[in-house]
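User: Could you check the structure of this?
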Amino acid sequence: MSNWFEENATRSVIVHTLVVAAATWAAFAFIFDENKVQLHEAKVSRVEAAAKEVSARNSVLITRVEYLTKENEKLTRWLESTPKSIPHYENEINNLKERIIELEKVAANVSNANVTETSDHPDFYQLMKNLKSGTSFVDPKTKAVLGVRDIDIDKTAFVNISLPSGKKIKAEKVSPGETWGFEDAGKEYQLVLDSIDWPSQSYKASIMELPAQETLNK
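Assistant: Sure, the predicted structure tokens are below.
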């Protein structure tokens, strides 16, 4: 064998070099791959740890938000029940707005309802209407007009009246039951402010033909 190495020195050197190089490369590849695996595992571990930490923080924050939300609701309810606080007034305003909406619906229904009633003398003209403040009662027969501009909390109203004769009447603090008499085409009529409702800002007005004295005596 030694003779072969001596006779083939160059070849033996080359073979030896290749063997050493292959072994070195194999060792390097093994160590490199092992290091890559360990590095990847380390990165995965760090990511998992970071994810767990974020999840834990989120859980704490969620719990904190729920607690603060409940505390805020309790504080809001307490303030709403405390007079002279802003939440109390805001709650009152919301309640009043809802009440106004309900009253507007009622008033709209009332304003759309035109009621004609008969009297003890059905042969004589009579008309009654429910209206909202800011609108006018207009009698289609005599053209008499009774307009209610404002309704005050003391159940009085500011009225404008126009009679067939052309006479204009303006009156303040008019109470329900106030009447205005006039004549048209030889007949006597009475214009009446029957009722006033301040919450719904509505009123009822009527006009009636008055029977002649001769008819009343029959």
